């Protein structure tokens, strides 16, 4: 049994895992914010094109996030039970799965970039630009997925230093490369896509090299990969519900005009950035809860859950205060277009008001994922999508409610999940002990 499992959970333990995870989680969305700011000054059409193309690429990002979360939970339980080689073996098979899924995404993205962009965009010029960006950007999917698998097993064995170095290094390099390619090199929107591919490919290669250094048992085991797919099906279904919501939201925002979808892109990327930053405590919860339950320590699992819930809520309140204070400044970082900035003013009160509730939801998501209670999260996420988010945003389109209606749908989605996760947290049904669930 590891030392961290033997001792009672402490704020210091959570911080030790959460702070490096914070940098790792923030690196990718921070790069996307830099990319959005760089492209935004090319004009409203390129910004709208990145909004559409980036939303499609977020499908790959979500798949990667789900893979990382599932791998963390499985590896953490085995690590908590005292079997580190088995925890690393989860990472080997997850990496094979990641590579296969990444290559599949490249094929699908190349073939369907045009039709998908035209389905989501509000005008042909935006659609054509988005399709061109997407055909290049999707080449980074294999690297993105390999990095997700690597993050997953390393978090499971509570190694946060190496992911920090890899992810931060790759994204800083790409953040420097992006403006160089877009402006001095004269590549425009194409330069943005190339910089995306560079960050994802470099990161994936470094995670793969780290896995090779950790173990020589690299042979794929189809039965284990299939088992991972089966065990991860609830996460994938849950991820599909998220994607249906956010793709639909972008499609509806596009129907309100180029300025509206540009403003939606800025706010949505800031929302994703906040979500992943606040997920830092959830990552700590996944690792510590999984290890505690793997070792049979129910009391420690409860203590972690309580602490991360308080930490998640407090961090979200601080973040909301910062966003509120920057309401008149932050949109100008991404666009100089007055019509786009006018539309961001519609979204901002929703953004600020929802953050504290979202912080609690993200923390409890981490607790339940670490506990392997994925089926419950799947069901409640689908419920929030079908009964909250999707009806509201399409009602907003039908009644011409604008971006306020779109973000009202997100509010309903968050509130349904808040009630569901708090209810589960207060029950004992998620406290299942053992190396596997």
Automatic annotation (TrEMBL):
Keywords: Cell membrane, Membrane, Transmembrane, Transmembrane helix, Transport. The chain crosses the membrane at residues 14-34, 46-69, 94-113, 133-153, 165-187, 193-212, 235-258, 270-296, 308-334, 346-364, 376-397, 403-420. It is found in: Cell membrane. The keyword Membrane applies. Belongs to the multi antimicrobial extrusion (MATE) (TC 2.A.66.1) family. NCBIfam families: matE. The keyword Transmembrane applies. One of its GO terms (cellular component) is plasma membrane. GO terms for molecular function: antiporter activity; xenobiotic transmembrane transporter activity. This is MATE family efflux transporter. Pfam families: MatE (PF01554). It is a multi-pass membrane protein. CDD domains: MATE_DinF_like (cd13136). Its main location: membrane.
